[in-house]
Fold these 2 entries.
Entry 1:
Amino acid sequence: MGTPFEDMAEIDRLVHEPSRLAITSALSSCESADFLFLQRITGLSKGNLSSHLSKLEKGGIVAISKNASGPPRTTIRLTPAGREVVAEHWERLTRLRDAARDWTASQE
Amino acid sequence: MGTPFEDMAEIDRLVHEPSRLAITSALSSCESADFLFLQRITGLSKGNLSSHLSKLEKGGIVAISKNASGPPRTTIRLTPAGREVVAEHWERLTRLRDAARDWTASQE
DNA sequence: TCCCTAAGGTTTGTGTTGCAAACCAGACTT
DNA sequence: AAGTCTGGTTTGCAACACAAACCTTAGGGA
């Protein structure tokens, strides 16, 4: 029920935001990645990356682990739930795009 | 140059926002649509729809025309430039998703 | 003619974001 | 001791999304 257009209202803005879309996409192709690696491939500043990761963590999308002793080093991975949310998000986008392509019905 | 992840930084937030993604998608499948029609299929409130349309208009994505006399009636269509921006946006998203799928290189 | 209502928008107010820039702090190196 | 690398937090601000209040024109009834 509801057009794919209405469906967009339910989109998950947590994942949809461009920087976070980049982060989750990068993570979805690997088991885990560390902070500096994510920073390099996304081009984000560390402050920015840090706050995006905090939001993703709070939302249960990623898990963050730091090694307590030794040099600071942070490892990030998608949680199983996060992996699902990300997949669902892409499916929603795909549905919308396909609907836009195929949809020529009752306009008035 | 630059990974598709970095590429996301250049995403057009004007189009990327969920409601506007729905609006532009709906418009891309038809020549033009009127205000009430867009409101029905997107499920947006009129106030909200109005402000989204204003932003899209200011950004050159859509053209808005109103019939001066008679009952109020507003017609919206994608501009040629807007059609291009929207297409480019979807291509960028597709590139990102495909990259996430295919990309298993050098994760140190 | 004068209200009344409804359609179709626009404006305003408010809380939330995203971002840059500044600051902080532990561990190694020299 | 000084410097650098790592991984952050905090602060300040401008832009945004949304809801709710407001405005305007058209037509209907008395």
Note: The first strand of chain A starts at residue 33 and ends at 34.
Entry 2:
Amino acid sequence: MPRPSQRDRILDAYTELVVTSGPETVTLEAVATAAGVSKGGLLYHFGSREALLEGLLERARGLNDDDLAAARAAPEGVAAYYLRTSVDEPVAGSPVYRATVALIKLATTEPRAAEATRRCLAGWRAALTEELGDPLSADLVAAVGDGIYLRAIVGDSSEGLGAAIDEVIRRTSPR
Amino acid sequence: MPRPSQRDRILDAYTELVVTSGPETVTLEAVATAAGVSKGGLLYHFGSREALLEGLLERARGLNDDDLAAARAAPEGVAAYYLRTSVDEPVAGSPVYRATVALIKLATTEPRAAEATRRCLAGWRAALTEELGDPLSADLVAAVGDGIYLRAIVGDSSEGLGAAIDEVIRRTSPR
DNA sequence: GTCTATACGCGGATAGAC
DNA sequence: GTCTATCCGCGTATAGAC
């Protein structure tokens, strides 16, 4: 896999369309146009719709792993990192975030996307447990973050929680 | 609207298929067969795919309103009710729960379903705020419940939280 | 009311030119 | 590598019989 810049542009377009319009409504034609190529051009890089999906899954997994590593190295800690980015990214829209939202939307239809999503969520839960010690605290923080994702997907924001991340972490810990 | 039993059977089938296979992959043919009628028969009751969706949305809204009323009247309280049912229903599978999951899955593609979902979530948040007083506590419990829904949708369970609902409520409250 | 038959359009995929 | 042209199958919706 050399450096197929065109492949990435196509995946970018696909991701973007899934995020905005939802899966299944996205046609190869639409992805190709958005990426600046023709349907035939797209199908040269990805032999089928299935292959295109697989490409997105692979990239989403990679981006998530990197993000998880960044969280582990973050001074604020994994918990604050996870909650903060969950709340902020809907606006900022980093590549990881977009890929993750696309993943979840695809998960409503594609079993492979659902599996990839579970893998991501499990990774965060593991890192949180590692950091917080108490499993319930970890599961709570994780669930709050997951809830924020669900809201983002249906078009709801979570500023209330975003403004009180430290307090949220304090409350979720054992008393 | 008299008592169109056939309409309901069709909506049941549609809901079930959306929950299991995801939206958009569900064809009118499949819904008709699952409901025990032909495509033509289905289209007599619902003039178009759009009308079928609208039917599901309407029913989901109604079921959710009823559930919200039940929660408000429940001795355990709204918070415990919301968390408990979120965790348990994936197994039990009540009509409200199925309708809600279908709603969320549809929300990834259909703006109207997204709006209906936001309306439902807002209703729970309002009831929780009313009961708990503190807005942050309410938002926290709501977010945890929402997170549990997200997990259910991607095929993850949340037994850990389900086994500690009282503790969850205790921790989310102000200290 | 419910069915069958059919028209119609669209999306995925292939073939082959450039 | 990328495009155009084309084929094929499927899903929605309509028409009309029963």
Note: Chain B is about 80% helix and 0% strand.
